[in-house]
Amino acid sequence: MVGLNIPVIPVEHQYIVTEAHPDIQARHRDGKPEMGVLRDSEGQWYMREEAGGLILGPYEKGAPVCYLDGPGDDSEYELFQEDLERLEPHIESAMNRVPAFGESRGKACL
Questions:
Q1: In whole angstroms, what is the distance from residue 63 CA to residue 40 CA?
Q2: Which fold has domain 15-70+81-109?
Q3: How many whole angstroms separate alpha carbon 43 and alpha carbon 88?
Q4: What values do phi and psi take at 12, rounded to 5?
Q5: DSSP character at residue 42
Q6: 60 CB contacts (<8 Å, ≥6 apart)?
Q7: Cα–Cα distance measured from residue 15 to residue 55, given in angstroms and rounded to the nearest whole number
Q8: Which residue blocks in 1-110 are alpha helix, DSSP H?
Q9: How far apart are CA 26 and CA 95, in angstroms?
Q10: Domains of the chain, residue spans
């Protein structure tokens, strides 16, 4: 559109979604607004509310590339193999910054 050729390489983005947390559910029952997005530039992650729990998304350097030849027709809802070791520094940083995240059970999503 503007005459620039900028290469774009899709990567596997992992994130963790926790189960509902009682304190967040209590906020909702009290009519309080959803909490804002928290971005931690030192830990290189963001966190926000998701379905009464929390979602942690890392800003990864060197995340594995995918779809070098373009996505397949059935890739819209594809899940990649989880790699929690890759997320471990982000998870530990988030647990230190937001104790409620460490108290919640979560699962990795890709």
A1: 18
A2: D-Amino Acid Oxidase; Chain A, domain 2 (3.30.9)
A3: 11
A4: -75, 120
A5: T
A6: 11, 13, 14, 44, 86, 90
A7: 7
A8: 22-29, 84-97, 99-103
A9: 20
A10: 15-70+81-109
What are the backbone angles phi and psi of residue 53, rounded to the nearest 5°?
A: -120, -150
Q: Residue 12 to residues 3, 16, 24, 57, 94: CA-CA distances in angstroms?
A: 28, 13, 29, 12, 20
- For residue 87, the Cα-to-chain-centroid distance in whole angstroms is 10
In the chain, % of residues over pLDDT 90: 47
CB 92 within 8 A of CB 45: no
47-105: per-residue pLDDT in tens?
Answer: 999 989 999 999 988 888 888 888 888 887 788 888 889 899 999 999 999 998 988 87
If residue 35 lies in a helix (H) or strand (E), which one and from where to where? none
Alpha-carbon gap, residue 110 to 60, rounded angstroms: 13
Give the Cα separation of 102 and 91 in Å (integer): 8
What is the C-alpha to C-alpha distance for residues 41 and 70, in angstroms, rounded to an integer?
31
